[in-house]
Amino acid sequence: MKHSNPQNSKKKSFLHIPKYPGGKDAYQKFIRENIVYPELALTNKAEGFVYLVYTVNNIGEISDIEVAKGIGYGCDEEAVRVIGMMQYEPARNRGIKMKVEMKTKIHFKLPGKVQPGNQAEVHLNYSSPNSDKTNSPEPKPQAFYNYTINLEK
């Protein structure tokens, strides 16, 4: 007969999802250094959220980048460009190949004095759901990251 000990109920995850090298700080730095507020968006004073969904495979490559909801004026394309440049660390899963769907929300917000071509403020939300699609009654762990990045020159 098995006895469950509530003090020793730490769940172990067999499958590991790909992670960005260097963690949240490196992820934030990458976005800050590579995103540029589009000139068309500055001209039209466009701001808002761009919601992206993309897939990271077992070797860390990004594919299938889609804009779930965008704001146009070049912001959607800029968000896709920056996410497409990223490379994740490979997931070590004992030979099991898996793809993980990632969701990112990038906030393009016009700061007070921005000239076309300069960088602007970006808010980034990153979530990584567990891609194990089994019908397990146990809740699946998720990782969520929220960033506010000020990129004024």
Structure summarized in a few sentences:
With 153 residues, the protein is α+β, with helices and mostly antiparallel strands. Helices cover 18% and strands 29% of the residues. The protein has a 5-stranded antiparallel beta sheet, with helices on one face.
Notes on the structure:
This protein is an alpha+beta fold and 153 residues long. It has one domain: TolA/TonB C-terminal domain (2-Layer Sandwich). Helix content is 18%, strand content 29%. The chain has helices at 23-34, 39-43, 75-85; strands at 48-56, 62-69, 100-109, 121-129, 142-149. It has a 5-stranded antiparallel β-sheet with strand order 2-1-3-4-5, covered by helices on one side. The longest helix has 12 residues, at 23-34.
Which secondary structure elements does this structure contain, and how are they paired or packed?
Layout: H1 23-34, H2 39-43, E1 48-56, E2 62-69, H3 75-85, E3 100-109, E4 121-129, E5 142-149
Antiparallel strand pairs: 1-2, 1-3, 3-4, 4-5
> What is the CATH T-level topology?
TolA/TonB C-terminal domain
Helix and strand run? HHEEHEEE
Provide the structure class: alpha+beta
**Domain count:** 1
Widest sheet: strand order? 2-1-3-4-5
- Overall, the morphology is elongated
Average pLDDT number: 75
Content of β-strand = 25-35%
Termini Cα gap: 66 Å
Counting H and I runs of at least 4 residues, what is the number of helices? Answer: 3
Q: Which CATH first-tier class would you pick?
A: Alpha Beta
Q: How much is the radius of gyration in Å?
A: 19 Å
Helical fraction equals 10-25%
Instruction: Just name the CATH architecture.
Output: 2-Layer Sandwich
